[in-house]
# Entry
Amino acid sequence: MNVSYSDSDYKQLGDEELMRRLFQKDKHAFEAIFDRYGDLVYSTALRVLRDAHLAQDISQEIFVRLWRKPESYVAERGRFLTWLISVTRNRAVDEIRSRGRRLRHETASPEEQEREFPAGEANDPALNAQLAEQARTVRASLTELPPEQRQVIELAYFGGLTQQEISDRLDQPLGTVKTRIRLGMQKLRAALAPEMRSERI
Amino acid sequence: MDCEQVGQLLDAYALGAAEADEAARLEEHVADCVRCWSSLNEAQQAAAAIALSTAFQRAPASLRNRILAETERGERLGVPKLMQLLRSLWPVGAGIVTTAAVASLTFAFFLQAEVNDLRDENDQLEAQVEDAGEILNEQRQLMAILAAPDVQQVRLDATDHTTSAGAVYQWSSSAGTGALLCNNLPALQEGQEYKVWFLTQDHSYEAGSFQTWDGIGQLTMDLGDLPELPLAIGVSIEHADAREPGQMFLLAEFEQ
Ligand SMILES: [Zn+2]
# Structure
């Protein structure tokens, strides 16, 4: 009868409070977390793995582990969303490495990537309003980076390549790759500083 | 690695692009340096934000269903759920030993399957396997008793006739173990537990204690420790630190 009330109550709760309830095996809290971040986890895994089935498997693994071992998230070490995204990205990259897969977009230029993963849609149906706003900020900042800086950042983050591997792949000196990463990330950090101060990411 | 070198590597590390040996040295430094730790935190937040730049796709509804189904599956290991199952297998009426033997066999196989299933998973589930293993052990003990050629049983009745609680105590002298299965037990208050006692002319020996889930309670016990042949077995509701029994709640006398 009051299911809809409690559902909307859960939607109002912050991540940390939902996690606190998850420790008590509160299934509603788990559903709320999935409904809040399921699309983000899936999309991130898909971007790295480029395979819908694998992305689903990895997403399932991440959420099931969150349910069974919520203590693997330690609140003192940072925000929940940062942790969840990092776990997803790292797990997906592990998967690529263990499969020895070569990703087509490893060598793609930012323009090619833009065609394949169009940045920019303000009204992402899959996002809640707050995340959508953050996504807009991040996309705008990435777009403003010089293409060669954005490229190395995306090769590292989504492609799972180390600096040395990027240097080999792009046939650029290692020092150049390192500089591009540092400069690009510096700008990103500056652009995201207000978001991060509000501790939303 | 010093603070400056860490500063040079932070962003690459946060992006997952540091080489393994560099990453290890950075982690070592950051573990002891609050300043670098906080810069790293910031870099990691920025790196995680990059994921938000990707084109969002709705996760298929089937994924949501699969994940929620997994949480149900994992839950079957919870003790209350197991107790519910035990209750559904609770033997009624005549032929109790045979029925109980079959029931506990089924139960044990079910548990074994769960445990195997879990061990196959790449997830770290030691704690849950341990829980299940403990219960499984109890079930094995129970089976050993029920399968012994000299198994005997006695029914414990409630001393208070307003409750429908009851229990069966089964034991095997050759196996040296006994098992008590209780049903329809009233819920306990905070700090209380059910204690099982062996009573002789002059003494009461505590055989163990248990909690109840949904009216079910179970205890397997080693009979080797008993210094004398008991005249009766009883169950009382006690505070956890009680050393002597109060009023018996369930009681049965042994035929001498
Ligand atoms: Zn330092």
Observations:
- Residues B 3, 6, 29, 33, 35-36 surround zinc ion (CB under 6 Å).
- Chain B touches chain A through 44 residues (CB under 8 Å).
- Confidence is low (pLDDT under 50) at residues 74-129 of chain B.
